[in-house]
Specification:
The chain is an alpha+beta fold. Helices cover 33% and strands 37% of the residues. Among the domains are: 1-53, no CATH class; 74-85 and 229-311, Efflux pump adaptor protein, beta barrel domain (Elongation Factor Tu (Ef-tu), domain 3), CATH 2.40.30; 120-195, Orthogonal Bundle (Helix Hairpins), CATH 1.10.287.470.
Length: 403
């Protein structure tokens, strides 16, 4: 009879072990120790609950914390990369041979500064020809106007036919149109001559030159160099999908940290947050515009950002030891039911805040969560909840080490 009772209790312990095996406090080695302790404890429980056994159904004291939801200001950290506010591609607008490069590679350049000088002799010739054509068109237009004005009174006195009057008027209109075409050709020739000087459209730093003196460039299809504006920079980073809801609203502030995690004293408002999740990374693209007056940040540099200003309502703070992880990657906690028995509860967590987890879902106000002593408190065990203090936690840890 005693053997049957022992086998029954051992089967019960196995079911407890399988239920508790989904919760991994730390590594897999600790899970093995926990399971062994549970089997041993249940076996001892069978002896204790045998007829005449002392201490039947004795409740073990466990430290607990009572859930008290509160409003928390959350802070998130993400890797980020710096990009220039403007990264301008410098291209020649006309074809020609590069006569001179007028900047130092990697040096600062100003808006309107000439970077390349192309051979402009062909464009000077084209401008002279266009000017001559414009002058000839102007003379023809003036002559056509005089002829038209001469014919008009003759037509009124019927000295010339209506056909001659119409011809004179048409010739005058055509001459005016030819003058407009010639004037447009002059403007085009002047633009081409100006485009023989390749200028920077922004203030910034020039990159290396991809062409040297004597090289022929065919026009806008060929990149000569780039100019990057860095007095203001973009801070680009991705927000994980699980954090997007918390960061969707609010007056968010982005602080830039160095590679060592130390603040650089640079802050900015979050300027852009996409509404789409990038399928390749599972993150939402975000960007802040940052003043970089001291030019301590360079385009392409990797940094970290700290995003603050998000608020989580009805959040719960729990010690990290109280939140367990199951093999599927989810989080659970061990709660004490109104009947003082241990019951696992799945929860959703957001992040760490100091040495505590921020729990966003799965618990309600007044719940009691076990913080230590899991070896002697598998699911279904009768326990005596004791509000956790530093002393109670130390006692629970000593009790576990003895077991």
């Amino acid at each position: 009879m005693h053997s049957n009772s022992l086998n029954s209790k051992q089967n019960q312990a196995s079911s407890y072990g399988r239920a508790f095996a989904g919760a991994t406090l730390l590594p897999a080695l600790l899970v093995t120790v926990l399971s062994s302790a549970l089997l041993l404890g249940c076996g001892q429980g069978a002896d204790a609950q045998a007829p005449g056994g002392p201490g039947a159904r004795q409740a073990a004291p466990v430290p607990v914390v009572e859930v008290k939801p509160e409003q928390l200001e959350l802070t998130y950290e993400y890797p980020a990369q710096i990009a220039g506010l403007r990264e301008v591609e410098i291209r020649a607008r006309v074809a020609g041979i590069i006569e001179r490069r007028l900047f130092e590679e990697g040096a600062r350049v100003k808006k309107g500064q000439s970077l390349y000088s192309l051979d402009n002799a062909p464009y000077q010739t084209a401008l002279a020809r266009a000017l001559a054509d414009e002058n000839a068109a102007r003379v023809r237009a003036a002559q056509a106007e005089r002829d038209y004005k001469r014919v008009m009174p003759l037509a009124e006195s019927k000295a010339v036919s209506q056909s001659e009057l119409d011809g004179a008027q048409s010739a005058f209109e055509i001459a005016k149109a030819d003058l407009l075409v010639a004037s447009a050709a002059v403007r085009t020739a002047r633009l081409n001559l100006e485009y023989a000087r390749v200028e920077s459209p922004v203030n910034g730093f020039a990159s290396r030159s991809l062409y040297s003196e004597g090289s022929f460039v065919s026009g806008p299809s060929e990149l000569l160099t780039t100019v990057t504006q860095i007095d203001q920079v973009y801070v680009n980073f991705g927000i994980p999908g699980k954090d997007h809801d918390q960061l969707r609203n609010g007056n968010l502030v982005v602080e830039v940290l160095g590679a060592d995690g130390q603040p650089l004293g640079l802050k900015a408002k979050l300027g852009f947050q996409d509404v789409r999740v990038n399928p390749a990374t599972g993150t939402v693209d975000a960007r802040a515009v940052l003043a970089n007056n001291k030019e301590v940040l360079s385009p392409g540099q990797f940094v970290r950002v700290r995003v603050s200003g998000a608020v989580q309502k009805d959040a719960v703070l729990l010690p990290q030891r109280a939140v367990l992880e199951n093999p599927a990657g989810g989080k659970i906690v061990m709660t004490v039911s109104p009947e003082n028995t241990v019951a696992p509860r799945p929860v959703q967590v957001a992040q760490w805040k100091g040495d505590q987890w921020v729990v966003t879902d799965g618990l309600k106000s007044g719940d009691k969560v076990i913080t230590d002593g899991f070896m002697k408190a598998p699911p279904g065990t009768l326990v005596q909840p004791v509000m956790a203090t530093a002393q109670a936690t130390a006692v629970a840890e000593q009790t576990e080490s003895k077991q």
